[in-house]
Amino acid sequence: MTANPTGNPTGFEPVFCTIVPPHIQDRITRASDSSIAAKARKSLERDSFERTHRRLTTVLGAPALAPPAEAAAQQKPHRTIYDTRHTTQLPGRKVRGEGDKPGKDATVNRAYAGLGATFELYLEKFSRYSIDGNGLPLNATVHYDQDYNNAFWNGEQMVFGDGDGEIFLDFTIPVDVIGHELTHGVTQYTANLTYFGQPGALNESVSDVFGSLIKQYTLGQTAAEADWLIGAGLLAPRVTGVALRSMKAPGTAYDDDVLGKDPQPADMAHFVKTGRDNGGVHINSGIPNHAFYILAESLGGHAWERAGQIWYDTLTGGELKPDCLFADFAKATLKAAKDRYQAGEEYQAVLKAWEQVGVPTA
What we know:
It is built from eleven helices and ten strands. It is α+β, with helices and mostly antiparallel strands and 362 residues long. The longest helix has 27 residues, at 34-60. Helix 4 (106-126) packs across helix 5, helix 6 (197-219) runs parallel beside helix 8 and helix 8 runs antiparallel to helix 11 (345-356). The strands form three sheets. The chain has a six-stranded mixed beta sheet with strand order 1-5-6-4-2-3, covered by helices on one side. A two-stranded antiparallel sheet has the order 7-8. The protein has two domains: 17-189, Elastase, domain 1; 197-356, Neutral Protease Domain 2 (Neutral Protease, domain 2), CATH 1.10.390.
């Protein structure tokens, strides 16, 4: 099972990745407030439609995109923001192109800035020229559908809902959400981790890691200063919670009468066996998430430097198979740490991080 040169996976089901996991959406459909439940059902139905579309574009082949010659020569981003005006016709009407001045629509401006922040981290800190490494133009659509409670990467572009205002706010608000979804594209073009079970949880975790790093880089935060939350600012005021996930303390992001309690485990002793959510990809991702947090905290400083570099080397180094398990990934991070830093502080910190979450490395 490998990735072909266009980044489309072969040998397993193509990936359609949303920031709000289906287990949360499903929980909301059972809310006592019929209006809230109806909006969640509509969002789930839309996700199902887009997932089918993703399969078709993978089979038929997504259009090949290249940056303009000037952007490529200077390794500059090429961003385009579209607006569906609350329809579902992608990509929608173009409302802002690369270099255009900010307009009055804050959602458009946030999407544009978030694409830029993601592009900048990958280029400046990991020498990666856009999502595919070859300057892939970054396209995003905002104001998707009515009360749509999600954001997603469909293999070609980003799409943002405005939220229903009751449970979720505008999905362009947290920059880590933007970075998370675009990183699914990076994974698509590199390790291409199968989106089920442990490899699927690793796929989600890698997106959380780099989504968090993009937020930290944007804010100039050290590992000690970061909140390590994914989606902070996304939950509406009525919700009892702070974010979708916590890398620092998995299982504590929310505890709400509508959303339920955050089910993420922090270690293998509490690994969740389930057939839902593609085998718990958004749930068990808490384990490798926590390992990365432990590593970054141990090394200190800016987490995108040593800790992030090890994870990036692991993702792009060719050691990972699409169906790799947590233990396989852990061993690959140790190899990446040793290759770059020898058997020093970084290697020992990686080893201890995986030991603390109960993932074997021997």
